[in-house]
Amino acid sequence: MEKKYYDLLGISEDATNESIKNAYEKLLMRAKHDDSIDVPVINDAYDHLTGNVKPVITEQEKSKREKVAKRSNAMPFYIIGGIILAVVLILVLPSIFTRTPDLAVTFVGGYSINDEALILETEIEDSGIKDVEVSRLFVDSSVSSGEADYGGRLALAGMLQGGEADLFITTKEAFNYLLIDEDALMVLSQSILADLGIQLNDERLVYVNGIPYGIDVSDVSLITNAVSGNDEAIMCIANNSDHLDEIIETIILLLD
């Protein structure tokens, strides 16, 4: 077969690479004026004799190379998709693994919660509310509402903004402090009071500027037994709570 290639270039079989190259270039020059010279055939002969033959690629190898190329082209999209997935997981996972109670009852003020708080949780859950959480947020208002401790105020603001609060049990000072934020507490409207079975002239209602915001529950044993350190207890509703039905059911239970 190789003899054929040598013959096509017009050289002997012992020709050097330099001779092969010179013969090939001369033929290419002649081909510009001689249409009888088949340039592709001459190119093929030159490639074979000089070792420039392109390897034959099987269909299997070709398919494999195409897959590799596609993966390489898609790599930026995989990276972007991975970043998006990581961001979504960072944002979503905490909400999945963080327990959100059906009702959050928070004591705000100089209270200390004792073991009786578990009884309060149990009583409310027995009324039909599945998951109740009773917690305490210490806010020291020893002189006036404006002097509540800074850490407590930050925690309370975060609780309100994050919708983590439903029902507050507060001292008088903490109640006044909550009212500094006009949107913190829900007004006990006539419809809410009607659901609670309470009249506007009920002496237990705590009014501020003629508006009922709280209910005095200082004599409710389930509440007073759950804490120590202060006998004052005003019950009020977080304005941004999504659990109004559960709140009303709980207040009815406590006031009964």
Walk me through this protein's architecture.
The structure is a single chain. With 256 residues, the chain is an alpha/beta fold. The protein has two domains: 2-50, Orthogonal Bundle (Helix Hairpins); 103-255, 3-Layer(aba) Sandwich (D-Maltodextrin-Binding Protein, domain 2). Helix content is 50%, strand content 14%. The protein has ten helices and eight strands. It has helices spanning 2-9, 17-31, 39-50, 59-97, 116-126, 150-161, 172-178, 190-196, 221-224, 244-255; strands spanning 103-109, 112-113, 132-138, 167-170, 205-208, 211-216, 227-228, 234-237. It has a six-stranded mixed sheet with strand order 3-1-4-8-6-5, sandwiched between helices. A hairpin with a 2-residue loop joins strand 5 and strand 6 (211-216). Helix 1 (2-9) crosses helix 3 and helix 2 (17-31) runs antiparallel to helix 3. The protein is rod-shaped, with a radius of gyration of 43 Å. The protein starts with a helix and ends with a helix.
